Amino acid sequence: MTEPHLSSSARAQDGGEDVGTAQDAVLTEPAGSKVDGVYDLVVIGAGLMGACTAWAAGRRGLRTAVLDQFEPGHPHGSSHGTSRIFRRVYPDPFYVELTAHAADSWQRLEDDTGVVLRRFTGAVDHGPDREPHRLAQWLSDASVPHELLSAEEAGKRWPQMRFTTDALYHPDAGVLDADLAVVSALARASSDGVDVHTSAKATMVAPGGDHVVVQVIIGDERVPLRTRRVVLAAGPWNQPWLARLLGKSAPALTVTQQQVMHFRQREPAEDWPVIVHRDLARTDLEGIGVFALPAGRAAPRAVKVGEHGHGTVTTAEGRDAQVDPASVERLVRYVDEFLPGLSPEPFLKLSCLYTRTPTEDFVIDTVGPLVVCSPCSGHGAKFGAYIGELVTSMITGDGSPPDRFTLRAHASAPAP
């Protein structure tokens, strides 16, 4: 694999922390600036969305730079780790259709890089509030292969799990290696001429005549990059960026700190599917809303288990990275009851960040030269390659975001 060119210096996933004015810039000519010194786009944030946008833009021949405060794989945002869920099932036909586009986009990225980023394990959805039969109908409407099983049948197929309702299985699901996806996308982007700058902190976006100036701290220098478009793919750092850039027009974003635990398999040779289980009546567990998936390269023969809700409100800069003891206790009890194939003591406890909207729909839209890219709410990773291609098509003028993702749609959403 071709390694991306990494220009080093300072350190937060996905982006910058402050938005100043043009007067803040110390205007020195950036090294490696493009042709007339102006990029077609500068991407702030090189997590999954930013890295995939850089890949897609490089593929289209756009003069591009991508910036990140940290190195790829850092644990401070939402794009780290070797296991994220890829699945076709959604409790919403809109997203079922979108997963088909995502599958095609991931295949293009895999073909382009020569790197396998997804491992297909299949997925099981169960629980009264997951509504397996309704999900199955939407998969049927989208011609997605699937199978409905009774609780007894599911228990025989997966004896390491416990079921209280019918279960839905579909094979076109599995684990996405997020760390590898970021590195591979950046490597390919670099080979296509994209300037990849990590440990490079964007601090300001301001008008500059017929272009925009993005000020970046690289080492001890303040370097202005001139560009026609800015893609804000800063994950949880989007919250302060958008508040400064859009003011009252900024979408409502809430950053929460979430916990995931890793549990060892009792039978190392046993294959585990992706699992989504929802049973809100279980008030003793504060309503079950659990996901589980094979833990990937970082922890082979282990399963990662987490709660989709119950996050603590925080900020990208203010999070403490401490694991909530109440969440640990709930997940240990859950594993003991519903996942007997796992040893119920977690050997690894981690936190990450969600950036939520009130509707859990993404925010992808343009405002003048700014492209807002916030696929979020804890379910965006599976769409990374698709989002990168979508954002690039918006910049070239041959694509537009779904209406549900626009700032206009989010403006009418209830406050969180």
What does this structure look like?
Its cofactor is FAD. GO terms for molecular function: flavin adenine dinucleotide binding; sarcosine oxidase activity. Residues 1-11 have a biased composition (Polar residues). Keywords: FAD, Flavoprotein, Oxidoreductase. This protein is α+β, with helices and mostly antiparallel strands and 416 residues long. It has two domains: 22-79 and 179-252 and 359-411, FAD/NAD(P)-binding domain, CATH 3.50.50.60; 123-171 and 254-356, 2-Layer Sandwich (D-Amino Acid Oxidase, Chain A, domain 2). The chain contains nine helices and 20 strands. It has helices spanning 48-59, 93-113, 132-141, 151-157, 178-191, 238-246, 325-338, 384-396, 407-411, and strands spanning 38-44, 64-68, 84-86, 118-120, 123-126, 147-149, 167-170, 174-176, 195-198, 200-207, 212-218, 221-232, 254-264, 274-279, 288-294, 302-307, 312-314, 348-356, 363-367, 370-374. Strands 5, 6, 7, 13, 14, 15, 16, 17 and 18 form a nine-stranded mixed beta sheet that branches. Strands 1, 2, 9, 10, 11, 12, 19 and 20 form an eight-stranded mixed beta sheet that branches. A three-stranded antiparallel beta sheet has the order 3-8-4, with no helix packed on it. Strand 15 (288-294) and strand 16 (302-307) form a beta hairpin. Helix 1 (48-59) runs parallel beside helix 5 (178-191), helix 1 (48-59) packs across helix 8 and helix 2 (93-113) packs across helix 8. The protein is globular and about 65 Å long. 52% of the residues are buried.
